[in-house]
Structures are given as C-alpha cells and as structure tokens.
C-alpha cells in the first residue's frame, strides 16, 4: 500500500485552490463582461449564463458532476478527487463573485485585452491541474477517459475539435464575428500559457532511459502507461559497464507519470524531447497484438 506524502498532498491542495481562484477571477473579471465564449465547458456555462442570467458557477457544477461520476470508474481516484475539489471551489467562487457584484474589467479595445488575460489565467489554471495529476474538468475529463482506453490516441485533436465546435455555436448567441475572433485568440493564448507548465502541446514525447533495471521499467511502461518500448544493449563510455537503453514514445500528458516511474530506480539516467509527429501501427489496448 502506497504511503501518503502529506506535504505533497497539502501542496497539491493549495495549488488546486490557486487554480480555482485563477479560473473564477479570469472568467468573472475578463470573460463575462467581454461577451464571448471561452473554449471548452467554460464556454458552454458562459453561454447558458448569457441566455438565462443564472450564474455560470451552477452550470459548471451541473455539467461536470455527471462527467466526474463517469470518471470515477475509469480514471485514478486522485485525479477525480482533485478535479472535484477544483470544480467545487471554482464554481462556488463564481457564484460568490456574482452575488457580491465583484469588479469586472470593461475592455475599450473590442475585447482583445480581456481575451488575452483570460487566456493566460485559464491556461495557467489548466497547467497547474495537469501538473498535479488532475484537471480543470469539462473537456479534459472526456479526453482523459478516452486516453485511458486509447493510450496512443491523439487526445489533443479531440479537445481542439470540441472547443472549436463550442466556439462556433457561440456565434448564434452573440451574433457577430468579433466574439468568434476573441474566442479563438483566447484559446490560442490559453494553449501557450498552459504549455509553459506542461511543455509544448505536441503529439508525443520521446523518452530515452539508460538503466540497469530494464525489466522492471518495461513492466511499468507496458502495464501502467500502456505503451511499448524498444530496449537496446549499451555500455557506459566512462565506466565501461553494460547497461540498457529504453526508448519509448508517450503522450505529452504522461510526462509527470513517466518521470515518477524512472525515479523509483537507482542508476537510471533519462532525457526526453518533443516528437513533432507519430505515425504507424500501435496498440490501443495492452492485450492487442502489435503489428
């Protein structure tokens, strides 16, 4: 049974609070008064608020709760618990900010400043949650469930497609091209901001590991990450001792988990780099036969 690292969990809770605050303030202060829909479920909640004048915090809860219930059966419990915590706090803060009529920025530049600053705040929010092994809810939950079943799937495409559909629908509510352009700008800044915390949003990352524990790491890669790898015999130039090099390509969101695996083994050296594209035959499930 794994021991709980109290200090780490306390830090994760504090980071979740920071992420929730960034989310609530970014939406309330910048997005809502600028009349555009941000990407993802935030955009759906924003549009519903615009239509019904009912606080978006309630809609965020209504949308996320069913997704989180489903996620409980497919994803790690830590992921779900921290995502629930984030959702509850950020939604509550949105309700409170609305009830007290907290300050909202009135952009005189056609909404451009609002789109940029909300994109930064929401991007950092999402990056923080991904770094601690959770998410900011909504589309990220859907993508994580898909990834749990199809580890080699390009979930970034799924997220992007859903976001652009939501942005497209917002045109029929706001009725002008400016709102669409603001949403696209916000999404672009959002992706760049989250990339600061989660590296570049590329298709994959290549890990190269020099180790004397290839079999143990192999099992972790195959059964925990559900990826394959290539093992090459190697020899240290300085020590002239034999070792193995493991080469594996994983999804970018699995970087923290992969690094956690390698830290378990002494005398292991690892480095990784971006992969701009992945093509070929892969195993969708661990029991599939690789061709």
Would you give an account of this structure?
- By secondary structure, the chain is an alpha+beta fold.
- It has 2 domains: 6-198, no CATH class; 204-275, 2-Layer Sandwich (Alpha-Beta Plaits), CATH 3.30.70.120.
- The protein is built from 10 helices and 4 strands.
- The protein has helices spanning 6-34, 41-52, 56-72, 77-99, 112-131, 139-149, 155-174, 177-198, 214-223, 255-262, and strands spanning 204-211, 230-235, 242-250, 269-275.
- A 4-stranded antiparallel β-sheet has the order 2-3-1-4, covered by helices on one side.
- The longest helix is centred in the N-terminal third of the chain and has 29 residues, at 6-34.
- The radius of gyration is 21 Å and the shape is elongated.
The average pLDDT is 84
The percentage of residues in β strands lies in 5-15%
Structural class: alpha+beta
Give me the strand/helix succession: HHHHHHHHEHEEHE
**Can you give the helix content as a percent range?**
55-70%
Distance, first to last CA: 36 Å
Low-confidence stretches: 282-286
Q: If strands are numbered along the chain, what order do they take across the biggest sheet?
A: 2-3-1-4
Number of structurally distinct domains: 2
Count of distinct strands: 4
Radius of gyration: 21 Å
Descriptive key words:
291 residues; alpha+beta; Alpha-Beta Plaits; 2 domains; four-stranded antiparallel beta sheet; 4 strands
Give a short synopsis of this structure:
This protein is an alpha+beta fold. The chain contains 10 helices and 4 strands; from the N terminus they run ααααααααβαββαβ.
Protein topology:
Blueprint: H1 6-34, H2 41-52, H3 56-72, H4 77-99, H5 112-131, H6 139-149, H7 155-174, H8 177-198, E1 204-211, H9 214-223, E2 230-235, E3 242-250, H10 255-262, E4 269-275
Antiparallel strand pairs: 1-3, 1-4, 2-3
């Amino acid at each position: 049974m794994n021991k709980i690292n109290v200090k780490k969990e306390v830090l994760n809770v504090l980071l979740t609070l920071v992420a929730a605050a960034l989310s609530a303030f970014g939406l309330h202060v910048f997005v809502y008064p600028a009349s555009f829909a941000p990407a993802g479920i935030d955009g759906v909640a924003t549009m519903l608020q615009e239509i019904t004048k009912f606080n978006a915090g309630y809609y965020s809860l209504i949308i996320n709760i069913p997704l989180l219930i489903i996620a409980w059966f497919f994803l790690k419990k830590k992921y779900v618990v921290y995502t629930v915590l984030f959702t509850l706090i950020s939604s509550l803060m949105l309700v409170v900010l609305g009830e007290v009529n907290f300050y909202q920025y009135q952009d005189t530049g056609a909404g451009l400043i609002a789109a940029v600053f909300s994109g930064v705040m929401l991007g950092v929010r999402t990056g923080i949650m991904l770094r601690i092994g959770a998410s900011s809810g909504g589309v990220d939950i859907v993508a994580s469930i898909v990834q749990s079943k199809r580890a080699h799937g390009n979930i970034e495409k799924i997220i992007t497609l859903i976001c652009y559909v939501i942005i497209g629908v917002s045109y029929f509510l706001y009725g002008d091209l400016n709102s669409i352009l603001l949403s696209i700008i916000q999404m672009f800044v959002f992706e760049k901001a989250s990339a600061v915390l989660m590296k570049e949003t590329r298709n994959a990352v290549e890990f190269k590991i020099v180790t004397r524990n290839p079999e143990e790491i192999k099992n972790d890669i195959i059964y925990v990450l559900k990826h394959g790898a290539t093992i090459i015999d190697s020899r240290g130039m300085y020590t002239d001792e034999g070792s193995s090099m493991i080469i594996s390509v994983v999804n970018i969101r699995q970087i923290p988990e992969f690094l956690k695996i390698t830290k378990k083994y002494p005398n292991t050296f690892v480095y990784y780099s971006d992969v701009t594209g992945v093509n070929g035959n892969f195993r969708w499930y661990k029991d599939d036969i690789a061709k």
